[in-house]
Amino acid sequence: MFWQAVTLQLGYNATLVMLGAACLGVAAGVTGTFLFLRKRALVSDAISHATLPGVGLAFMLMVALGGDGRNLIGLLLGSAVSAGIGLLCVNWLTRRTRLAEDAAIGAVLSVFFGFGIVLLTVIQTMSSGRQAGLEGFLLGSTAGMLWSEAMVIALGGAVTLALVVALRRPMTLVAFDPEYAAATGRNVGQIDLAIMGLAMAVTVIGLKIVGLILIVAMLIIPPVTARFWTDRTDTMVVISGAAGGLAAYLGAAWSAVVPAMPTGPIIVLVSFAGFVASLLLAPNRGVLAAVLRHRRFQARVHLRQGLLALAQGQPIYERYTSRILQRAGLVSADGVATEAGRARAAKALLDEKRWEIVRADQAMEGAAALYDGMRALETVLTVDQIAEVDAKLAPPEALA
Amino acid sequence: MSGAEFVPLSLPPLVIGVLAAVACALPGNFLVLRKQALIGDAISHVVLPGIVVAFLVTGAVSAWPMMIGAALAALVAVGLIEAIRRLGRIEPGAAMGVVFTAMFAGGVLLLEQSDTSSVHLDVEHALYGNLESLIWLDATGWQSLWDPVALAGLPDELLRMAITLLVVGLFTWVLWRPLKISTFDAGFAEAVGVPTGAVGLGLVVVSAIAAVAAFDAVGSIIVIAMFICPPAAARMMTNSLERQVVWSVVFAVLSAVLGYVFAGYGPLWFGAANAVSAAGMIATVLGVLLGLAAVFGPCRTRSGAPVA
Predict the structure, then answer these.
(1) Least confident span in A7-21, A59-73, A212-226, B159-173
(2) Other Cβ atoms closer than 10 A to A209
(3) Per-residue pLDDT averaged across B261-288, rounded?
(4) CB contact (8 A) between residue A125 and residue B277
(5) Neighboring chain B residues of A261 at a CB cutoff of 8 Å
(6) Whole-model pTM over 0.90
(7) What is the phi/psi pair of residue A68, to 5°?
(8) Per residue in B12-58, pLDDT tens?
(9) Which pLDDT score is estimated for B2?
(10) Of the four listed, A204, A271, B267, B288, which is most buried by Cβ atoms within 10 Å?
(11) B221-272 pLDDT, tens digit each
(12) Which among A49, A111, A275 has CB closest to B286?
């Protein structure tokens, strides 16, 4: 059943929703990357909650004008206007008053949301029955989505995406180095506003599918996920878009086949699962990779210390050390060094003595800084330099 | 307005609203000053899954398991945010966004999947609160305030909110000096031996308690307004912490009373028959107060900032 959904064989409506959701997911992931890099991920929280009064007012206005209050384009326009006002409020409070940005975000999101709730209760009493579907904007609902609505979402997603691609250079620059961007004549304020405007567009488009409370997750989670896999912005944008699109697609498929499974929350949870997998498994920045790196480092330290102990004929008490030495075939089961072990131990001792000289020598300060008790000297110094060091080694003591 | 109508229907929600607003505003003062305002945001979102899980475990809507569940969820969230921040080296704002949205989504999903329609627990209630429905049916008028039999029928939320305010107030009063020092100069606080880490954690825990207690009265998102708006508006009124706290309490009480009155009687003035959401209206009034303070407050700009 789930497989049928994923391969788009579940009928017209489900296919429509899944493709629309995927478009939205890609647009959200890509746009969110710039918010994340600009360290303003939570501004999207204020934007999304601020859409609610716009939805309510647009509904009331359309009904007052004698139309159908549920026209999606009208509702989205209304939400865009109020989200824009919310965004301006955050900006104004942050710049013109002593409030920090986090307080401004929190104040705007909760006050706008509260006012939106007031409007929703007005609508409930105003026209019974006709407001059905407005609650869907809170948590998203895709049941009975119309072709025209899906087209609005898919088209909106595509346009947003195109704008992001067109603006990616200035946005990247501002995200990483606003001072340099300003110095090269770019208007940082305007570019910031463009990033926010795109985030607002994604929020508005996503209202119908994910709902205003959870759309912020689609802007935040994919970029954080992508950050684990790469250090390059353009790659990160691509991965984030793919992660967002995939999560939205799978989530929409899931909600299509399981009853009482709201679309918004399941998309967010699929996205979160991808995040957890990346946190654990990503190469380089992932937790598993870090643990392995630590283990390898530990093994090298123990190997080195074990070899030095062998070279000086000291017994090895540390069980982990002797296990490593045995596994490497440097020590036999009874703790006696093998042929290879003796050779490696002698080399380790020699290296240690050479390092001692290098570290005492002002002229080799650069190399000495690299000393970590494990590094082979050959990787740091040239053959000539090593010969120079060897010349300073204490001459072998004369046999008595 | 006769007491026979006002006391049973309006007095309890009004008092609960005031208590909730003050209980949130007190810790909110320190959260706003420490630039941790969004911790209130995160806590009020993660309260939902905690309450739903507690409901699923106990199978009943009862106060204590739910408060414990919500408090545990808040601690889980704080732990997760910290773990993601450290393990993944992700900036705190984004880590917070990941955690609270995912946990909120989980809470909504559980709520929709489990059959909670028979009890008073659904998504809309969780978002809007149900301040209006906290009525006192045993009351007959003002004289009921001295009638022990009638008093026993007061909504439980009233007592719970009063105890919460007491706890929050005691916390603020007892730890006033450490809170103040560690908020303004964490380095100095460390140097004079204030356990800043413990004070910070205590502040988060107390905020969580206030959020949980206020949750079922005003809903998860409007709690955020109660945390942030009164202190933020108070911050524009004065440069002294003592006076800021007093102002924030004034704003909290004012908004709760005005909001409740506007929600209940405002529509009547315009000829409409039905009241609107009281919690939503309280948040709206808070927003208006904050706006006024931001435009007219005597200390609205950063000291030393150019007056534009």
Answers:
(1) A7-21
(2) 30
(3) 86
(4) no
(5) 109, 112-113
(6) no
(7) -85, 120
(8) 889 999 999 999 999 999 999 998 888 888 888 888 898 888 888 88
(9) 63
(10) A271
(11) 889 999 999 999 999 999 999 999 999 999 999 999 999 999 888 887 877 7
(12) A111
Q: What is the ipTM of this complex?
A: 0.91
Cα–Cα distance, A394 to A390 (Å, whole number): 9
Q: Are A20 and A153 in contact (CB under 8 A)?
A: yes
Of B166, B179, B192, the C-alpha closest to B22 is B166
Cross-chain Cβ contact A111/B123 below 8 Å: no
Is the CB of residue B161 less than 8 Å from the CB of residue B217? yes
Best to test chain B binding among A212, A216, A220 (most B CBs inside 10 Å): A220
Q: Does residue B305 register a pLDDT over 60? A: no
Structure tokens that stand for A214 in this block:
């959870």
Q: Which of B101, B102, B280 sits opposite A114 (nearest CB)?
A: B280
Question: A56: exposed, middle or buried (C-beta count within 10 Å: 0-12, 13-18, 19+)?
Answer: buried
* Alpha-carbon gap: B88 to the closest alpha carbon of chain A (Å): 6
Average predicted confidence (pLDDT) for chain B: 86
Q: Tell me what the mean pLDDT of segment A373-395 comes to.
A: 76
Q: How far apart are CA B214 and CA B212, in angstroms?
A: 5
Mark yes or no for CB contact A114/B98 under 8 Å.
no
Task: Sort A397 into a burial class: Cβ within 10 Å, 0-12 / 13-18 / 19+.
Answer: exposed
Higher pLDDT, B113 or B102: B102
Q: Whose structure tokens read 């009233």?
A: B158
Query: Do A261 and A254 form a contact (C-beta atoms < 8 A)?
Result: yes
- pLDDT tens digit sequence for A129-161: 555 667 778 877 777 777 888 888 888 888 988
Cα–Cα dist A314/A342, whole Å: 13
In sign, the C-alpha dihedral spanning A273, A226, A188, A24 is negative
Q: Across the interface, do B290 and A107 touch by the CB < 8 Å criterion?
A: yes
- If one counts every other C-beta atom within 10 angstroms of the C-beta of residue B131, the result is 30
- The Cα B223–Cα B220 span in angstroms is 5
Give the position of tokens 């004079």.
B192
User: 């942050």: which residue's tokens?
Assistant: A94
Distance from CA of B11 to the nearest CA of A (A): 21
Contact B35 A103 (CB under 8 A): yes
Indicate the average pLDDT of chain A: 86
Mutate to test the interface with B, among A117, A210, A220 (most CBs of B within 10 A): A117
CA B165 to chain centroid: 11
Which residue is associated with the tokens 């380089």? A284
Rounded CA-CA distance A156/A172 in Å is 22
Sequence-ordered list of residues with C-beta below 8 angstroms from that of B294, at least 6 positions apart, any chain: A92, A93, A96, A97, A99, B233, B236, B300
